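Researcher: Here's the sequence for the chain we discussed earlier.
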Amino acid sequence: MKPFLFLVALLSFICAGVKAQDADVAYLIKAWELADTSQTRKYLESVQYFYQQPDAVRKKLIEEMHAYVDKHANTRLQVRLMLLEEPWWAVCMDADPGGEAGIPLIKKAVQLANQENDDQLLSEVYSAYAEHSTRIAWVEDYLFYSIKALELQQRLGAEHFPNINTRWFDMCKALYVTREYRLSLEYGQKALSVKTNDVFTLDLIGASYKKLGLYDSSLYYYNKLADILKPDAGGAVDGFKEKWLIIAKGNIGENLPLQKKYDLALPMLKEYALKSGEVVDAFNVALANNALANLYFAQHQFALALGCWKITYAWANSKEVNNMEYATKAAEGIAAAYSGLGRIDSAFFYSTLFHRHSDSLNAFTSRSNLRATKAKITFEEMQTGLQSARAANRQQRLIMYFIVGGIILFAIIALLLYNRKLWRQKYKTAILERKRQVAEMESKRAKEQIALFTQQIIDKNNLIDKLTEELAIQTENAVTEKNTAVESLLQYTLLTDGEWEKFRMEFYRAYPDFFPAFKKLVAQPTPAEERLATLIYLDLSNQQIANTLGISKDSVTRGKRRLKQRLNLQTDEVLEAYIRNLNN
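Model: Thanks. This is the structure I predict for it:
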Protein backbone atom coordinates (compact mmCIF):
# COMPACT_ATOMS: atom_id res chain seq x y z
CA MET A 1 0.00 0.00 0.00
CA LYS A 2 2.81 2.42 0.90
CA PRO A 3 4.65 2.03 -2.46
CA PHE A 4 1.37 2.76 -4.22
CA LEU A 5 0.83 5.94 -2.18
CA PHE A 6 4.42 7.03 -2.91
CA LEU A 7 3.87 6.49 -6.64
CA VAL A 8 0.65 8.54 -6.54
CA ALA A 9 2.43 11.37 -4.70
CA LEU A 10 5.32 11.29 -7.17
CA LEU A 11 2.98 11.45 -10.17
CA SER A 12 1.07 14.34 -8.54
CA PHE A 13 4.35 16.23 -8.02
CA ILE A 14 5.43 15.64 -11.63
CA CYS A 15 2.04 16.76 -12.97
CA ALA A 16 2.15 19.86 -10.80
CA GLY A 17 5.63 20.61 -12.14
CA VAL A 18 4.44 20.19 -15.73
CA LYS A 19 1.49 22.52 -15.11
CA ALA A 20 3.76 25.11 -13.49
CA GLN A 21 6.14 24.87 -16.45
CA ASP A 22 3.25 25.31 -18.89
CA ALA A 23 2.12 28.34 -16.90
CA ASP A 24 5.62 29.82 -17.16
CA VAL A 25 5.66 29.37 -20.93
CA ALA A 26 2.13 30.79 -21.21
CA TYR A 27 3.24 33.86 -19.20
CA LEU A 28 6.17 34.48 -21.56
CA ILE A 29 4.00 34.03 -24.67
CA LYS A 30 1.36 36.43 -23.36
CA ALA A 31 3.98 39.08 -22.56
CA TRP A 32 5.86 38.67 -25.85
CA GLU A 33 2.84 38.80 -28.15
CA LEU A 34 1.99 42.38 -27.14
CA ALA A 35 2.38 44.91 -29.96
CA ASP A 36 1.28 48.15 -28.23
CA THR A 37 3.45 50.71 -26.40
CA SER A 38 3.49 48.58 -23.23
CA GLN A 39 5.42 45.78 -24.98
CA THR A 40 8.89 46.89 -23.81
CA ARG A 41 7.89 47.17 -20.16
CA LYS A 42 6.09 43.79 -20.26
CA TYR A 43 9.07 42.15 -21.96
CA LEU A 44 11.48 43.48 -19.32
CA GLU A 45 9.16 42.22 -16.59
CA SER A 46 9.15 38.78 -18.23
CA VAL A 47 12.95 38.79 -18.43
CA GLN A 48 13.18 39.66 -14.74
CA TYR A 49 10.79 36.82 -13.95
CA PHE A 50 12.80 34.48 -16.22
CA TYR A 51 16.11 35.17 -14.45
CA GLN A 52 14.52 34.56 -11.05
CA GLN A 53 14.15 30.89 -12.01
CA PRO A 54 16.88 28.27 -11.42
CA ASP A 55 19.30 27.55 -14.28
CA ALA A 56 17.66 24.21 -15.09
CA VAL A 57 14.20 25.80 -15.30
CA ARG A 58 15.47 28.60 -17.54
CA LYS A 59 17.12 26.13 -19.89
CA LYS A 60 13.90 24.09 -20.05
CA LEU A 61 11.86 27.22 -20.77
CA ILE A 62 14.16 28.11 -23.67
CA GLU A 63 13.71 24.62 -25.14
CA GLU A 64 9.92 24.76 -24.78
CA MET A 65 9.74 28.24 -26.32
CA HIS A 66 11.75 26.97 -29.29
CA ALA A 67 9.33 24.08 -29.68
CA TYR A 68 6.35 26.44 -29.52
CA VAL A 69 7.83 28.86 -32.10
CA ASP A 70 8.64 25.94 -34.43
CA LYS A 71 4.98 24.87 -34.36
CA HIS A 72 3.45 28.36 -34.48
CA ALA A 73 4.76 30.74 -37.12
CA ASN A 74 5.06 33.96 -35.13
CA THR A 75 7.81 36.42 -36.08
CA ARG A 76 7.32 38.60 -33.00
CA LEU A 77 7.75 35.65 -30.63
CA GLN A 78 10.81 34.54 -32.58
CA VAL A 79 12.42 37.98 -32.18
CA ARG A 80 11.60 38.09 -28.47
CA LEU A 81 13.12 34.64 -28.02
CA MET A 82 16.28 35.79 -29.80
CA LEU A 83 16.50 38.87 -27.55
CA LEU A 84 16.26 36.61 -24.51
CA GLU A 85 18.58 33.95 -25.90
CA GLU A 86 21.32 36.25 -27.21
CA PRO A 87 22.64 37.14 -23.72
CA TRP A 88 21.54 33.75 -22.34
CA TRP A 89 24.11 31.66 -24.19
CA ALA A 90 26.86 34.24 -23.59
CA VAL A 91 26.23 34.60 -19.84
CA CYS A 92 24.64 31.42 -18.51
CA MET A 93 25.79 28.51 -20.69
CA ASP A 94 28.90 26.57 -19.75
CA ALA A 95 30.65 26.94 -23.13
CA ASP A 96 31.23 30.34 -24.73
CA PRO A 97 32.17 29.95 -28.42
CA GLY A 98 33.38 33.56 -28.59
CA GLY A 99 31.62 36.90 -28.60
CA GLU A 100 31.42 37.34 -32.35
CA ALA A 101 29.55 34.05 -32.69
CA GLY A 102 26.42 35.85 -31.47
CA ILE A 103 26.48 38.45 -34.28
CA PRO A 104 24.59 36.27 -36.85
CA LEU A 105 21.84 35.67 -34.30
CA ILE A 106 21.35 39.35 -33.55
CA LYS A 107 21.49 40.24 -37.27
CA LYS A 108 18.73 37.71 -37.88
CA ALA A 109 16.69 39.38 -35.14
CA VAL A 110 17.10 42.74 -36.92
CA GLN A 111 15.80 41.25 -40.19
CA LEU A 112 12.80 39.65 -38.49
CA ALA A 113 11.97 42.84 -36.56
CA ASN A 114 11.98 44.72 -39.87
CA GLN A 115 9.37 42.31 -41.18
CA GLU A 116 7.07 43.21 -38.27
CA ASN A 117 7.21 46.91 -39.25
CA ASP A 118 7.29 47.83 -35.55
CA ASP A 119 9.75 50.59 -34.66
CA GLN A 120 9.46 49.94 -30.93
CA LEU A 121 10.44 46.29 -31.34
CA LEU A 122 13.18 47.30 -33.79
CA SER A 123 14.61 49.81 -31.30
CA GLU A 124 14.90 47.03 -28.71
CA VAL A 125 16.78 44.85 -31.20
CA TYR A 126 19.15 47.73 -31.98
CA SER A 127 19.72 48.13 -28.23
CA ALA A 128 20.51 44.42 -27.94
CA TYR A 129 22.94 44.73 -30.87
CA ALA A 130 24.62 47.65 -29.07
CA GLU A 131 24.87 45.70 -25.80
CA HIS A 132 26.38 42.75 -27.63
CA SER A 133 28.97 45.06 -29.18
CA THR A 134 30.16 46.16 -25.73
CA ARG A 135 30.83 42.54 -24.76
CA ILE A 136 33.22 42.16 -27.70
CA ALA A 137 34.72 45.68 -27.32
CA TRP A 138 33.21 47.09 -30.53
CA VAL A 139 32.76 50.62 -29.17
CA GLU A 140 31.94 52.16 -32.55
CA ASP A 141 29.29 49.53 -33.30
CA TYR A 142 27.87 50.19 -29.86
CA LEU A 143 27.66 53.91 -30.56
CA PHE A 144 26.09 53.46 -33.99
CA TYR A 145 23.36 51.04 -32.92
CA SER A 146 22.71 52.90 -29.66
CA ILE A 147 22.11 56.08 -31.67
CA LYS A 148 19.73 54.22 -33.99
CA ALA A 149 17.89 52.79 -30.98
CA LEU A 150 17.71 56.16 -29.21
CA GLU A 151 16.44 57.93 -32.34
CA LEU A 152 13.51 55.54 -32.48
CA GLN A 153 12.89 55.51 -28.71
CA GLN A 154 12.90 59.29 -28.35
CA ARG A 155 10.56 59.62 -31.34
CA LEU A 156 8.18 57.01 -29.91
CA GLY A 157 8.38 58.48 -26.38
CA ALA A 158 11.00 57.84 -23.71
CA GLU A 159 8.26 56.95 -21.21
CA HIS A 160 7.71 53.65 -23.04
CA PHE A 161 11.30 52.52 -22.39
CA PRO A 162 12.05 52.04 -18.66
CA ASN A 163 15.79 51.51 -19.27
CA ILE A 164 16.43 54.47 -21.59
CA ASN A 165 18.40 56.26 -18.85
CA THR A 166 20.95 53.42 -18.88
CA ARG A 167 21.30 53.86 -22.64
CA TRP A 168 21.96 57.59 -22.18
CA PHE A 169 24.68 56.90 -19.61
CA ASP A 170 26.31 54.21 -21.76
CA MET A 171 26.32 56.64 -24.71
CA CYS A 172 27.96 59.28 -22.49
CA LYS A 173 30.68 56.80 -21.49
CA ALA A 174 31.30 55.43 -25.00
CA LEU A 175 31.50 58.92 -26.51
CA TYR A 176 34.01 59.94 -23.83
CA VAL A 177 36.17 56.92 -24.69
CA THR A 178 36.08 57.89 -28.38
CA ARG A 179 36.95 61.53 -27.48
CA GLU A 180 33.60 62.98 -28.56
CA TYR A 181 33.45 65.09 -25.41
CA ARG A 182 30.71 67.54 -26.40
CA LEU A 183 28.39 64.73 -27.46
CA SER A 184 29.33 62.88 -24.28
CA LEU A 185 28.17 65.91 -22.28
CA GLU A 186 24.88 66.00 -24.18
CA TYR A 187 23.98 62.43 -23.24
CA GLY A 188 25.44 62.81 -19.74
CA GLN A 189 23.10 65.72 -19.04
CA LYS A 190 20.15 63.64 -20.23
CA ALA A 191 21.13 60.82 -17.86
CA LEU A 192 21.64 63.31 -15.03
CA SER A 193 18.17 64.78 -15.58
CA VAL A 194 16.70 61.43 -14.50
CA LYS A 195 19.24 60.39 -11.86
CA THR A 196 20.55 63.66 -10.46
CA ASN A 197 23.15 62.31 -8.00
CA ASP A 198 24.63 59.47 -10.03
CA VAL A 199 28.34 59.23 -9.16
CA PHE A 200 29.49 57.82 -12.49
CA THR A 201 27.57 60.35 -14.59
CA LEU A 202 28.87 63.31 -12.57
CA ASP A 203 32.43 61.99 -12.98
CA LEU A 204 32.07 61.63 -16.76
CA ILE A 205 30.56 65.12 -17.14
CA GLY A 206 33.33 66.65 -15.03
CA ALA A 207 35.99 64.77 -17.00
CA SER A 208 34.48 65.86 -20.35
CA TYR A 209 34.48 69.53 -19.32
CA LYS A 210 38.12 69.14 -18.23
CA LYS A 211 39.06 67.66 -21.62
CA LEU A 212 37.37 70.62 -23.32
CA GLY A 213 39.32 73.10 -21.19
CA LEU A 214 36.19 74.35 -19.39
CA TYR A 215 37.73 74.12 -15.95
CA ASP A 216 35.10 76.12 -14.04
CA SER A 217 32.38 73.75 -15.24
CA SER A 218 34.57 70.75 -14.45
CA LEU A 219 35.16 72.04 -10.91
CA TYR A 220 31.43 72.61 -10.43
CA TYR A 221 30.58 68.96 -11.14
CA TYR A 222 33.49 67.52 -9.16
CA ASN A 223 32.56 69.73 -6.18
CA LYS A 224 28.98 68.49 -6.50
CA LEU A 225 30.30 64.91 -6.60
CA ALA A 226 32.42 65.52 -3.50
CA ASP A 227 29.42 66.97 -1.64
CA ILE A 228 27.22 63.90 -2.15
CA LEU A 229 30.12 61.59 -1.16
CA LYS A 230 30.88 63.22 2.18
CA PRO A 231 30.69 60.59 4.97
CA ASP A 232 27.70 60.67 7.29
CA ALA A 233 28.36 61.92 10.80
CA GLY A 234 29.14 58.94 13.03
CA GLY A 235 28.24 56.47 10.28
CA ALA A 236 30.17 53.44 9.13
CA VAL A 237 32.90 53.93 6.52
CA ASP A 238 31.54 53.20 3.05
CA GLY A 239 34.35 51.83 0.86
CA PHE A 240 32.66 52.92 -2.36
CA LYS A 241 32.10 56.49 -1.15
CA GLU A 242 35.62 56.66 0.28
CA LYS A 243 37.21 55.66 -3.03
CA TRP A 244 35.09 58.04 -5.10
CA LEU A 245 35.64 60.93 -2.69
CA ILE A 246 39.38 60.47 -3.30
CA ILE A 247 38.74 60.62 -7.07
CA ALA A 248 36.47 63.69 -6.79
CA LYS A 249 38.98 65.65 -4.68
CA GLY A 250 41.82 64.52 -6.94
CA ASN A 251 40.06 65.87 -10.01
CA ILE A 252 39.37 69.13 -8.20
CA GLY A 253 43.09 69.29 -7.50
CA GLU A 254 43.87 68.47 -11.15
CA ASN A 255 41.68 71.36 -12.37
CA LEU A 256 43.26 73.98 -10.10
CA PRO A 257 46.76 74.05 -11.70
CA LEU A 258 45.13 74.44 -15.07
CA GLN A 259 43.77 77.71 -13.66
CA LYS A 260 47.24 78.65 -12.32
CA LYS A 261 46.14 77.97 -8.70
CA TYR A 262 49.25 75.96 -7.80
CA ASP A 263 49.29 76.53 -4.04
CA LEU A 264 45.73 75.27 -3.64
CA ALA A 265 46.29 72.32 -5.96
CA LEU A 266 49.54 70.89 -4.54
CA PRO A 267 48.24 69.46 -1.21
CA MET A 268 45.14 68.07 -2.89
CA LEU A 269 47.14 66.30 -5.60
CA LYS A 270 49.59 64.86 -3.06
CA GLU A 271 46.66 63.49 -1.05
CA TYR A 272 45.13 62.14 -4.31
CA ALA A 273 48.33 60.26 -5.17
CA LEU A 274 48.82 58.96 -1.62
CA LYS A 275 45.26 57.73 -1.06
CA SER A 276 45.01 56.22 -4.54
CA GLY A 277 48.09 54.18 -3.73
CA GLU A 278 46.61 53.12 -0.36
CA VAL A 279 43.49 51.66 -2.01
CA VAL A 280 45.63 50.23 -4.85
CA ASP A 281 43.73 52.06 -7.57
CA ALA A 282 46.27 51.84 -10.39
CA PHE A 283 44.49 54.09 -12.85
CA ASN A 284 44.04 56.95 -10.36
CA VAL A 285 47.65 56.58 -9.19
CA ALA A 286 48.64 57.27 -12.80
CA LEU A 287 46.24 60.22 -13.07
CA ALA A 288 47.39 61.75 -9.77
CA ASN A 289 51.08 61.55 -10.59
CA ASN A 290 50.51 62.91 -14.10
CA ALA A 291 48.69 65.92 -12.60
CA LEU A 292 51.48 66.42 -10.01
CA ALA A 293 54.10 66.23 -12.73
CA ASN A 294 52.32 68.91 -14.78
CA LEU A 295 52.16 71.15 -11.70
CA TYR A 296 55.88 70.71 -10.89
CA PHE A 297 56.84 71.22 -14.52
CA ALA A 298 54.84 74.46 -14.73
CA GLN A 299 56.87 75.69 -11.72
CA HIS A 300 60.16 74.55 -13.36
CA GLN A 301 60.73 71.87 -10.70
CA PHE A 302 61.95 69.43 -13.33
CA ALA A 303 63.36 66.77 -11.01
CA LEU A 304 60.08 66.43 -9.10
CA ALA A 305 58.11 66.44 -12.36
CA LEU A 306 60.40 63.73 -13.76
CA GLY A 307 59.80 61.45 -10.77
CA CYS A 308 56.02 61.79 -11.00
CA TRP A 309 55.94 61.23 -14.75
CA LYS A 310 58.02 58.08 -14.38
CA ILE A 311 55.49 56.74 -11.89
CA THR A 312 52.71 57.61 -14.36
CA TYR A 313 54.57 55.92 -17.20
CA ALA A 314 55.12 52.74 -15.18
CA TRP A 315 51.46 52.49 -14.17
CA ALA A 316 50.15 53.42 -17.63
CA ASN A 317 52.11 50.53 -19.16
CA SER A 318 51.14 48.04 -16.45
CA LYS A 319 48.58 45.26 -16.96
CA GLU A 320 46.25 46.92 -14.47
CA VAL A 321 45.97 50.14 -16.53
CA ASN A 322 47.43 49.65 -20.04
CA ASN A 323 46.39 53.15 -21.12
CA MET A 324 48.04 54.38 -24.33
CA GLU A 325 46.91 57.97 -23.84
CA TYR A 326 48.59 58.40 -20.45
CA ALA A 327 51.65 56.41 -21.53
CA THR A 328 52.02 58.89 -24.41
CA LYS A 329 51.55 61.91 -22.12
CA ALA A 330 54.03 60.54 -19.58
CA ALA A 331 56.70 59.82 -22.22
CA GLU A 332 56.31 63.34 -23.61
CA GLY A 333 56.54 64.80 -20.11
CA ILE A 334 59.64 62.75 -19.20
CA ALA A 335 61.36 63.95 -22.37
CA ALA A 336 60.46 67.56 -21.52
CA ALA A 337 61.70 67.16 -17.91
CA TYR A 338 65.04 65.64 -19.02
CA SER A 339 65.38 68.49 -21.49
CA GLY A 340 64.79 70.98 -18.69
CA LEU A 341 67.50 69.24 -16.62
CA GLY A 342 69.91 69.41 -19.55
CA ARG A 343 70.07 65.61 -20.04
CA ILE A 344 69.70 65.62 -23.81
CA ASP A 345 70.37 61.89 -24.41
CA SER A 346 67.63 60.82 -22.02
CA ALA A 347 65.31 63.47 -23.45
CA PHE A 348 65.93 62.11 -26.96
CA PHE A 349 65.29 58.52 -25.81
CA TYR A 350 61.90 59.36 -24.25
CA SER A 351 61.03 61.62 -27.15
CA THR A 352 61.42 58.57 -29.37
CA LEU A 353 59.17 56.59 -27.02
CA PHE A 354 56.64 59.41 -27.10
CA HIS A 355 56.46 59.32 -30.90
CA ARG A 356 56.14 55.53 -30.83
CA HIS A 357 53.24 55.70 -28.37
CA SER A 358 51.71 58.57 -30.31
CA ASP A 359 51.80 56.53 -33.52
CA SER A 360 50.13 53.61 -31.73
CA LEU A 361 47.43 55.93 -30.39
CA ASN A 362 46.81 57.38 -33.86
CA ALA A 363 46.64 53.87 -35.30
CA PHE A 364 44.05 52.97 -32.65
CA THR A 365 42.01 56.03 -33.60
CA SER A 366 42.22 55.10 -37.28
CA ARG A 367 41.04 51.56 -36.51
CA SER A 368 38.24 53.04 -34.47
CA ASN A 369 37.11 55.22 -37.40
CA LEU A 370 37.31 52.24 -39.74
CA ARG A 371 35.22 50.18 -37.32
CA ALA A 372 32.61 52.97 -37.24
CA THR A 373 32.45 52.99 -41.04
CA LYS A 374 32.06 49.22 -41.11
CA ALA A 375 29.24 49.47 -38.56
CA LYS A 376 27.34 51.85 -40.84
CA ILE A 377 27.93 49.60 -43.84
CA THR A 378 26.74 46.56 -41.89
CA PHE A 379 23.56 48.37 -40.89
CA GLU A 380 22.76 49.41 -44.45
CA GLU A 381 23.47 45.89 -45.66
CA MET A 382 20.97 44.47 -43.17
CA GLN A 383 18.31 46.99 -44.18
CA THR A 384 18.64 46.44 -47.89
CA GLY A 385 19.31 42.70 -47.61
CA LEU A 386 15.74 42.02 -46.51
CA GLN A 387 14.29 43.95 -49.45
CA SER A 388 16.59 42.18 -51.89
CA ALA A 389 15.56 38.77 -50.57
CA ARG A 390 11.90 39.61 -51.12
CA ALA A 391 12.38 41.10 -54.56
CA ALA A 392 14.36 38.54 -56.55
CA ASN A 393 15.88 35.20 -55.64
CA ARG A 394 16.87 34.74 -59.26
CA GLN A 395 19.40 37.58 -58.98
CA GLN A 396 21.35 36.04 -56.11
CA ARG A 397 23.73 34.09 -58.35
CA LEU A 398 24.57 37.20 -60.39
CA ILE A 399 25.08 39.28 -57.21
CA MET A 400 27.64 36.77 -55.93
CA TYR A 401 29.87 37.31 -59.01
CA PHE A 402 30.04 41.04 -58.34
CA ILE A 403 29.91 41.05 -54.55
CA VAL A 404 33.52 42.20 -54.01
CA GLY A 405 33.26 45.27 -56.22
CA GLY A 406 29.63 45.80 -55.20
CA ILE A 407 30.42 46.03 -51.50
CA ILE A 408 32.93 48.84 -52.07
CA LEU A 409 30.55 50.78 -54.32
CA PHE A 410 27.59 50.13 -52.09
CA ALA A 411 29.50 51.25 -49.00
CA ILE A 412 30.20 54.66 -50.59
CA ILE A 413 26.62 55.07 -51.84
CA ALA A 414 25.14 53.92 -48.53
CA LEU A 415 27.26 56.40 -46.60
CA LEU A 416 26.30 59.27 -48.92
CA LEU A 417 22.61 58.34 -48.81
CA TYR A 418 22.70 58.08 -45.05
CA ASN A 419 24.35 61.51 -44.71
CA ARG A 420 21.86 63.00 -47.17
CA LYS A 421 18.93 61.47 -45.31
CA LEU A 422 20.31 62.73 -41.99
CA TRP A 423 20.73 66.23 -43.43
CA ARG A 424 17.17 66.24 -44.78
CA GLN A 425 15.86 65.01 -41.46
CA LYS A 426 17.67 67.80 -39.61
CA TYR A 427 16.39 70.39 -42.13
CA LYS A 428 12.79 69.19 -41.80
CA THR A 429 13.09 69.17 -38.04
CA ALA A 430 14.42 72.74 -38.05
CA ILE A 431 11.54 73.92 -40.32
CA LEU A 432 8.93 72.23 -38.14
CA GLU A 433 10.48 73.73 -35.01
CA ARG A 434 10.44 77.20 -36.59
CA LYS A 435 6.76 76.81 -37.56
CA ARG A 436 5.94 75.66 -34.05
CA GLN A 437 7.71 78.68 -32.54
CA VAL A 438 5.88 81.09 -34.90
CA ALA A 439 2.55 79.46 -34.05
CA GLU A 440 3.28 79.77 -30.33
CA MET A 441 4.22 83.45 -30.72
CA GLU A 442 1.03 84.19 -32.68
CA SER A 443 -1.07 82.33 -30.12
CA LYS A 444 0.57 84.22 -27.26
CA ARG A 445 0.02 87.57 -28.96
CA ALA A 446 -3.61 86.70 -29.70
CA LYS A 447 -4.24 85.70 -26.09
CA GLU A 448 -2.77 89.01 -24.95
CA GLN A 449 -5.12 90.87 -27.32
CA ILE A 450 -8.13 88.90 -26.05
CA ALA A 451 -7.10 89.58 -22.44
CA LEU A 452 -6.79 93.31 -23.27
CA PHE A 453 -10.19 93.27 -24.96
CA THR A 454 -11.78 91.54 -21.94
CA GLN A 455 -10.19 94.05 -19.55
CA GLN A 456 -11.50 96.93 -21.67
CA ILE A 457 -15.01 95.53 -21.38
CA ILE A 458 -14.63 95.18 -17.62
CA ASP A 459 -13.24 98.72 -17.33
CA LYS A 460 -16.14 100.16 -19.37
CA ASN A 461 -18.68 98.31 -17.24
CA ASN A 462 -16.97 99.59 -14.10
CA LEU A 463 -17.17 103.10 -15.56
CA ILE A 464 -20.88 102.64 -16.24
CA ASP A 465 -21.44 101.43 -12.68
CA LYS A 466 -19.48 104.36 -11.29
CA LEU A 467 -21.38 106.91 -13.39
CA THR A 468 -24.66 105.29 -12.42
CA GLU A 469 -23.81 105.62 -8.73
CA GLU A 470 -22.72 109.26 -9.15
CA LEU A 471 -25.79 110.18 -11.15
CA ALA A 472 -28.10 108.43 -8.69
CA ILE A 473 -27.27 110.95 -5.95
CA GLN A 474 -28.01 113.95 -8.16
CA THR A 475 -31.27 115.82 -8.10
CA GLU A 476 -34.38 114.77 -9.98
CA ASN A 477 -33.78 117.59 -12.41
CA ALA A 478 -30.68 115.68 -13.73
CA VAL A 479 -32.56 112.41 -14.45
CA THR A 480 -32.85 113.12 -18.14
CA GLU A 481 -29.15 113.95 -18.37
CA LYS A 482 -28.23 110.71 -16.46
CA ASN A 483 -30.35 108.53 -18.74
CA THR A 484 -28.76 110.11 -21.78
CA ALA A 485 -25.18 109.46 -20.45
CA VAL A 486 -25.86 105.85 -19.53
CA GLU A 487 -27.60 105.19 -22.85
CA SER A 488 -24.63 106.69 -24.67
CA LEU A 489 -22.18 104.42 -22.81
CA LEU A 490 -24.35 101.34 -23.35
CA GLN A 491 -24.36 102.04 -27.08
CA TYR A 492 -20.56 102.23 -27.12
CA THR A 493 -19.84 98.71 -28.36
CA LEU A 494 -16.64 97.06 -29.43
CA LEU A 495 -18.18 94.49 -31.71
CA THR A 496 -19.28 96.21 -34.86
CA ASP A 497 -19.05 93.99 -37.94
CA GLY A 498 -15.54 95.17 -38.65
CA GLU A 499 -14.43 94.90 -35.05
CA TRP A 500 -16.08 91.49 -34.74
CA GLU A 501 -14.04 90.14 -37.65
CA LYS A 502 -10.85 91.52 -36.11
CA PHE A 503 -11.81 90.12 -32.70
CA ARG A 504 -12.79 86.78 -34.26
CA MET A 505 -9.33 86.38 -35.90
CA GLU A 506 -7.52 87.21 -32.64
CA PHE A 507 -9.77 84.83 -30.69
CA TYR A 508 -9.08 82.06 -33.22
CA ARG A 509 -5.30 82.53 -32.89
CA ALA A 510 -5.56 82.43 -29.11
CA TYR A 511 -7.95 79.49 -28.94
CA PRO A 512 -7.72 77.63 -32.28
CA ASP A 513 -9.76 74.63 -31.12
CA PHE A 514 -12.82 76.62 -29.95
CA PHE A 515 -14.63 77.39 -33.22
CA PRO A 516 -14.18 73.87 -34.73
CA ALA A 517 -15.49 72.35 -31.48
CA PHE A 518 -18.44 74.78 -31.40
CA LYS A 519 -19.37 74.07 -35.04
CA LYS A 520 -19.41 70.34 -34.37
CA LEU A 521 -22.12 70.93 -31.74
CA VAL A 522 -24.09 73.71 -33.51
CA ALA A 523 -24.72 73.15 -37.21
CA GLN A 524 -24.22 76.38 -39.19
CA PRO A 525 -24.11 78.76 -36.21
CA THR A 526 -25.16 82.38 -36.80
CA PRO A 527 -22.69 85.23 -36.20
CA ALA A 528 -24.79 86.27 -33.20
CA GLU A 529 -24.45 82.78 -31.68
CA GLU A 530 -20.71 82.80 -32.26
CA ARG A 531 -20.35 86.25 -30.65
CA LEU A 532 -22.39 85.18 -27.62
CA ALA A 533 -20.42 81.91 -27.26
CA THR A 534 -17.03 83.65 -27.37
CA LEU A 535 -18.04 86.24 -24.76
CA ILE A 536 -19.39 83.47 -22.50
CA TYR A 537 -16.06 81.66 -22.93
CA LEU A 538 -14.26 84.83 -21.77
CA ASP A 539 -16.32 84.58 -18.53
CA LEU A 540 -18.17 87.90 -18.97
CA SER A 541 -21.35 88.61 -17.01
CA ASN A 542 -24.73 89.12 -18.70
CA GLN A 543 -24.49 92.87 -18.17
CA GLN A 544 -20.98 92.99 -19.64
CA ILE A 545 -22.09 90.94 -22.65
CA ALA A 546 -25.11 93.24 -23.14
CA ASN A 547 -22.90 96.34 -23.05
CA THR A 548 -20.43 94.79 -25.47
CA LEU A 549 -23.06 93.69 -28.01
CA GLY A 550 -25.21 96.82 -27.64
CA ILE A 551 -28.31 94.88 -26.55
CA SER A 552 -30.32 94.60 -23.37
CA LYS A 553 -29.58 92.25 -20.52
CA ASP A 554 -32.87 90.42 -21.17
CA SER A 555 -31.79 89.87 -24.78
CA VAL A 556 -28.62 88.24 -23.52
CA THR A 557 -30.68 85.96 -21.26
CA ARG A 558 -32.95 84.98 -24.17
CA GLY A 559 -29.92 84.43 -26.39
CA LYS A 560 -28.37 82.11 -23.82
CA ARG A 561 -31.64 80.17 -23.54
CA ARG A 562 -31.83 79.70 -27.33
CA LEU A 563 -28.15 78.68 -27.48
CA LYS A 564 -28.69 76.09 -24.74
CA GLN A 565 -31.54 74.61 -26.79
CA ARG A 566 -29.32 74.55 -29.90
CA LEU A 567 -26.70 72.64 -27.91
CA ASN A 568 -29.34 70.13 -26.71
CA LEU A 569 -28.29 70.65 -23.09
CA GLN A 570 -30.29 69.16 -20.23
CA THR A 571 -32.15 71.43 -17.84
CA ASP A 572 -29.63 70.84 -15.04
CA GLU A 573 -26.61 71.52 -17.27
CA VAL A 574 -24.96 74.95 -16.97
CA LEU A 575 -24.43 76.64 -20.35
CA GLU A 576 -21.49 78.77 -19.16
CA ALA A 577 -19.56 75.79 -17.78
CA TYR A 578 -20.26 73.78 -20.92
CA ILE A 579 -19.01 76.57 -23.23
CA ARG A 580 -15.84 77.13 -21.19
CA ASN A 581 -14.94 73.43 -21.50
CA LEU A 582 -15.13 73.41 -25.31
CA ASN A 583 -11.45 74.37 -25.76
CA ASN A 584 -10.11 71.76 -23.28
